[in-house]
Amino acid sequence: MKPKKIMIEMNKTITIGAQTDHPLTVSRLGYGTMRLPGDQVWGEPKNREEALEILRTAIANGVNFLDTADFYGDDITNKLIADALLPYHEHLVICTKVGVGRNPDKSWKVFDAPEDLRTSINRNLKTLKLEQIQLVHFRVMPNSNTPFEEALETMFEMQKEGKILHIGLSNVNPEELTKGLSMGAIASVENPFGYGQRSSFEFHGQQNRGLEEVMPLCIANNITMIPFWSLQNSLPKNDDKIAAVAKKYGVSSAQINIAWLLHFHESLLPIPGTSQLTHLKENMAAIDIRLSDEDMSFLG
């Protein structure tokens, strides 16, 4: 008689800022909006109506965590969110990030001086038509001229002013996260992480700090971990193990990559993005896939 496969218990919700006076409980499968704008994350979507329908469909099917930024577009994703979803669902959490800007030639730039951060926050608030943003990540840029402490202190000042509810960090290393925790409450960390890419790596000459290096600190401090580029870095590798598990359950490799994230640790809040409605529906179905201990051991 074969031993019974043990299916891993998996929470479908997660609470951001659980130890604060303003906890936010959301579905553990969010949606990242970076794929919605045009080429090079710039300008209007190729199909604006589909982009709006993606946002509406996500919310209608239980997604209540959206990740955006005013430098997506330029400010295009925020406009799409407002056009598609106002008036916002009472349980919707909109998360944005600051510290980065765009040049007219579509290139990326560091935008993290105190006055830059205030400009970004005010722009997000205006376009999203909000009085307060529930979660804002300060993205750390390794080649910045602004000291980390000075930039983060500006974030905490805006939190005291009521413009930000919770503060998170993005592209952060263990030393910076430790410093951030010494300055105030850090609700979340948003770093690259996925089955095919778990640690830090260089991309287009820029160092991207992986989530793996800060996981022990996040877990010890009850910090929600929001992995990005999970599918972008994993799917092109055509992993044989992922394909085998996908075949076993009759689902796609993308769905198993997402399911792996959901089972890896209960503190992870994946935000897979897509610009196609069919892929959105496929990604969302991954939250109902139950992997066994055997599956997770096999995948490693």
What does this structure look like?
- With 300 residues, this protein is of the alpha/beta class.
- It has eleven helices and twelve strands.
- The chain has helices at 48-60, 76-85, 114-128, 148-160, 174-183, 215-220, 230-234, 240-249, 253-264, 277-285, 293-299; strands at 13-16, 24-27, 31-32, 65-67, 93-102, 108-111, 133-139, 164-170, 188-190, 201-203, 206-208, 224-225.
- Strands 3, 4, 5, 6, 7, 8, 9 and 12 form an eight-stranded mixed sheet that branches.
- Helix 1 (48-60) packs across helix 2 (76-85), helix 1 runs parallel beside helix 10 (277-285) and helix 4 (148-160) packs parallel to helix 5 (174-183).
- Count all strands and give the number: 12
Shape call: globular
First-residue to last-residue Cα separation: 26 Å
Number of helices: 11
SSE order in H/E notation?
EEEHEHEEHEHEHEEEHEHHHHH
Low-confidence stretches: none
Which structural category do the helix and sheet elements fall into? Answer: alpha/beta
Could you estimate the helical fraction of the residues in percent? 25-40%
Radius of gyration, Cα only, in angstroms? 19 Å
> Which sheet architecture does the biggest sheet show?
8 strands, mixed
Q: What amount of the residues lies in strands?
A: 15-25%
Instruction: Summarize model confidence as the mean pLDDT.
Output: 93
Descriptors for this entry?
globular; 300 residues; eight-stranded mixed sheet; alpha/beta
Short account of what is shown:
37% of the residues lie in helices and 17% in strands. By secondary structure, it is of the alpha/beta class. The longest helix has 15 residues, at 114-128.
